[in-house]
Design a protein that fits this description.
Elements lengths: L2 H16 L4 H20 L11 H11 L5 H17 L25 H9 L4 H13 L3 H5 L6 E2 L4 E4 L8 E4 L2 H14 L18 H15 L7 H14 L4 H8 L4 H5 L6 H5 L9 H16 L31
Helix pairs in contact: 1-2, 2-4, 3-4, 5-6, 5-9, 6-8, 6-10
């Protein structure tokens, strides 16, 4: 990367800092722009490469050649659009460069018994406490690692979450079992520096990589699917709350969701929610009469009577002549 390009990237980083973007977003977006520059430099001598169409070519390359997910392509799109508009001061043609449509997929979850097994198989007591905290609070990985001792409000039985996603503060649950576990953990490990979870050295914050590795090791020992991560544990918190009868608005506040429709996705994971639903067809009198009529005809039919063809409700039978042989069933 040339000095000029490096200057532009630094400008972009400073602009996002002034806009109060989260450190994680700044890191991801600057990385996306650097990769874009590197790709453009590698294609400079290619006669087929049109500089004006560089963003479109690059995004298609990411999806078709590198086969990254649409979620990743969408992140690259956001970074490049901000970079072009606010740093390079160039137009961004939305007709030529439409934003990728979001892929709507349901979050994956595991059962409460599997969560219990995951905690049980954690390597150290510190890891057990951390996974228990994730499951009993619904915190994101970064939010859990950013917890400080003063955020544990035992008198109010709640945990304060500072600078959550979208720079929003909120409160979440503090169960009595988790509080007892945290008290025992504080006596045993005596974390320093104000952090609830210290890293390799006292007074330092536990890193995301080390925390993720702790969950991977517990998952491997418990022989659970590879998709089980810190975020899946967060999904389990919301899903199991819903299954226990907690209303969506309360779950939305605990999860820190901006929109209720984001929280509503957990309804599709709640099997009990669908079991409780009464099918409207169960109350249709016409269908009940049809069933009784068919059963009555079947009981009174003689051996010489033509066979009764099973039909879907409200589907009229085909008219045939009296002398025509009955057609075989489609089944």
């Amino acid at each position: 990367m040339s000095s000029k390009q490096h200057h532009y990237v630094t400008q972009f980083e400073d602009w996002m800092t002034l806009k109060n973007y989260s450190p994680k977003t700044i890191k991801c977006y600057t990385c996306a722009v650097r990769k874009f520059w590197e790709y453009c430099e590698a294609r400079r001598a290619d006669s087929d490469f049109v500089k004006a169409d560089a963003p479109q070519i690059y995004l298609l390359h990411r999806y078709r050649k590198q086969q990254v997910s649409w979620q990743t392509v969408n992140g690259d799109y956001s970074a490049l659009r901000l970079f072009y508009k606010h740093i390079l001061d160039r137009d961004w043609n939305l007709k030529k460069l439409p934003r990728p449509r979001k892929v709507k997929s349901l979050p994956k979850v595991i059962s409460p018994d599997q969560v219990s097994l995951l905690i049980e198989k954690a390597v150290t007591f510190k890891h057990k406490v951390f996974i228990t905290l994730l499951y009993s609070t619904g915190l994101r990985l970064g939010e859990a690692l950013n917890l400080r001792v003063e955020d544990i409000e035992a008198s109010a039985m709640r945990i304060r979450v500072n600078d959550g996603k979208g720079n929003k503060d909120r409160y979440t649950l503090l169960s009595m079992d988790l509080l007892d576990m945290l008290r025992f953990y504080f006596r045993a490990f005596r974390p320093e520096g104000g952090w609830v979870f210290n890293g390799k050295y006292r007074g330092e914050q536990w890193s995301q990589k080390a925390a993720q590795h702790a969950i991977v090791e517990a998952r491997r020992r418990a022989k659970l699917p590879d998709f089980v991560t810190a975020h899946v544990i967060r999904h389990c918190f919301a899903t199991h709350l819903l299954q226990n009868g907690t209303d969506l608005v309360a779950i939305q506040q605990l999860m820190g969701h901006k929109y209720l429709k984001t929280t509503a996705q957990y309804i599709h994971l709640d099997n009990q929610h669908f079991i409780k639903i009464t099918n409207p067809s169960d109350r249709i009198e016409a269908w009940e009469k049809t069933i009784k009529s068919v059963r009555s005809s079947a009981n009174s039919a003689t051996n010489t009577s033509p066979p009764i063809v099973r039909m879907l409700p409200y589907v009229a039978p085909l008219k045939t002549s009296k002398n025509a042989a009955p057609k075989p069933s489609a089944d």
